[in-house]
Design brief:
Length: 351
């Protein structure tokens, strides 16, 4: 029996640990092949001064520009932060955000399709849309922004050819929240990446589930005509999973099936006062000891405070931490290190 699955997840997602040196650096992935440009790049300092925010860049907006996930700040132009997106990694300047001496960093990169091209599917023109249908990711820039109000709506082409489960939207020109549509919350809700808030009722996504070609928006959360960037994700077997689970508040914790061994996962409890917890298998290559957490919504240093195992087909919690395994609903995004079953139906090695 054959399966539709991505056999080599590192073709589309990679993690890199590196050290700063107070100078510009070219950072190459650890993998030997050289065909993985990180069209979406996310960098975070791991230890030290807690004021170092998350730094996010993409090839659609281009080098020399970044946003931070832990604040509402508008885009910053600075060539000393993310400089270029390379075929085998990326380059950074000497800014403390990304290359202070004696400090360690983690970078996560997703492959789309370069700087993108215009897309006119939907009511709004996407000035540049970078799409990788195989990996289920698209990055879009809307130069003229939304023109809808709180009472009328517009559609936006995402190019995925499949229904996106997650859409992340940010205003580039002005301060504003990172607004997220997550299929497990439904089309009448939104949740903010830069906040500990749980999901809230909202008409931002027009109470309309995305289709395989467009997603819907009511622009009341964004000023008319401002420059917008969005990231859309469709689920791919053996590579990505965007789901939810209910914790069991037990040290013999909840098992969350993903269909692959996770390389990266972000988890949010759907109530107020809980962070967006981020984990990866490069910072925690074994299931020994607590997992190292970074929080997408704050600039805090890395801390080892969660116990769970990365398994060949998902994760298994080993504690009762309220942020990840209380008797509550959680949403997550996960990307693979290895598929559980290859496209030819061969199981991968169990953990």
């Amino acid at each position: 029996m054959a399966y539709t699955a991505i056999d080599n997840p590192t073709d589309f997602f990679r993690t890199k640990l590196y050290s700063g040196n107070n100078n510009p650096q070219n950072i190459a992935w650890d993998e030997t092949d050289t065909n993985m440009q990180p069209d979406w790049l996310w960098i975070k300092s791991r230890a030290g001064n807690s004021v170092f925010s998350h730094v996010l860049g993409d090839s659609v907006r281009g080098g020399g520009k970044y946003l931070v996930s832990d604040t509402t700040a508008a885009e910053v132009a600075n060539n000393n932060v993310i400089a270029t997106f390379n075929t085998n990694g990326f380059s950074v300047g000497g800014a403390t955000f990304v290359s202070e001496g004696s400090r360690t960093y983690v970078a996560w990169g997703w492959k789309a399709n370069g700087s993108g091209s215009e897309n006119t599917v939907g009511d709004l023109t996407v000035t540049a849309l970078s799409v990788n249908q195989t990996a289920g990711i698209s990055i879009g820039r809307i130069t003229d922004g939304f023109t809808s109000t709180g009472t009328n709506s517009e559609t936006v082409g995402h190019g995925l050819g499949a229904i996106p489960q997650v859409i992340i939207v940010k205003n580039r020109e002005a301060t504003g929240d990172w607004q997220i549509y997550h299929a497990e919350l439904g089309n009448t809700k939104k949740i903010k990446l830069n906040s500990t808030d749980g999901s809230a009722d909202s008409t931002l996504f027009n109470n309309t589930t995305p289709t395989s070609s467009v997603w819907s928006v009511r622009g009341g959360d964004f000023a008319t005509g401002e420059d917008i960037v969005f990231y859309a994700f469709a689920q791919k077997q053996g590579y990505s999973k965007f789901g939810s689970y209910t914790g069991n508040a037990n040290a013999d914790g909840t098992f969350v099936y993903t269909g692959f061994k996770p390389a990266w996962i972000i988890i949010k409890r759907d109530t107020n006062n809980y962070n967006w917890y981020m984990f990866d298998s490069k910072r925690d290559p074994t299931n020994i000891g607590a997992k190292k957490d970074l929080d997408a919504n704050n600039a805090s240093a890395e801390v080892a405070d969660r116990s769970f195992d990365f398994l060949s087909n998902g994760i298994k919690f080993r504690d009762t931490n309220a942020g990840t395994n209380a008797a509550q609903k959680y949403i997550y995004m996960a990307f693979a290190e290895n598929p559980f079953v290859t496209s030819t139906g061969i199981p991968t090695t169990a953990k």
